[in-house]
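**User:** Once you have settled down, spend some time on the protein underneath, comparing sequence with structure tokens, and judge whether sequence predicts the tokens.
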Amino acid sequence: MGRVNYVVLFGSALLDLTCAVLRKNDVLYDSPLGEDKYLLPYIKKNASKLDSYDAAVIDLGDLKDTDEQVMEAVETIRFVDDSIRIIVIASKEGKAGLLSRCFLNGIYNLISAASYIDVRSQLEKCILTGMSYKDASVFRNAETIKKAEKRHGTEALGQYNQKTIIFMGTGPRMGVTHSVLSAAYTLRKCGYIAAVMDCTGSRDYLQLMQSYELNLNDDSCFTLNEIDIYIKPALSEFVNQNAYNYILYDTGQYGHFSVLSRTEKDTAAKADARVLLCGSKPWEIEDLSAVLKEILDSGMKMKYLFNFTSPEMQPELWKMMKPAGIGAGDLHIMEYLPDPFTESVKLREILEIQENRTRKSLFKNRFRQMKQVK
């Protein structure tokens, strides 16, 4: 089969995620439907233009066509040029029968809502190599697909319960960037899709990118360990992007955070969690005291994470923080993680990260398959 280089997108509720995968793999694309979500009329009118594309990505969740109209559109595309790779994404439940019909018609590049956390990797496979009969055999029976959706949950793709998390430090070199990367890596290992937003303007992320010999794409983003890292975006710019379960903002030193625009402050105020990295050395306590006063005056809820601090010092920290009204549940000490791309037990606790059941089920199923092969 091989990779495709030019793709046409039809009705994508997952436009941000789909385009991110295409850009990552240097695939050109068009999205001609616009606000009109009817596939069949467009295909009938523009069939002659389709032979310039290597693949067509059809997101069923965003189309207004009936199942019969979708199948007619698919057959028209195949009639025009049967070399066009057709990729079908069921980003909402209730399309099991249509996916099964696609499979029975020899279309194997199929992605269902039952595996929404893995949609990026599956879409990438569809783009780079194409799915095989074996890959798509789970779509032979509509009832099997329905059971998988029920087992994994029928939450629609692109409608995640997205969470935003703000990280900041009481001073420079508090380990904010290190902790952000560790949090993103921990989330990814738990089965979630995470993005990091660098709002600091420092060179830390650029140096990280260069050390791995990576390049920025058109969105000023690079991908490392399945984490998308955006360089210097506006703080509120990506809040409504539906390609991610979690968006982590690195705002650096609190002084930078305190001079943000009103829109950015509103974004931070609505964040699901705010984590302040603190130091416990004598010369760092003064900065902590100043920042703590501002935070308490603003009424913002904050998690306090002490970095580079031995657990034995926790009683002293508690004595220091308690008079300021900081609850025990908001005071944490980070474990020692020399490599930022390491899962953090402490960050899982702070951010209340649960193992994603869909991801876990997929791992179990793969393990069972491996045992059967043996």
Summary: The mean pLDDT is 78.
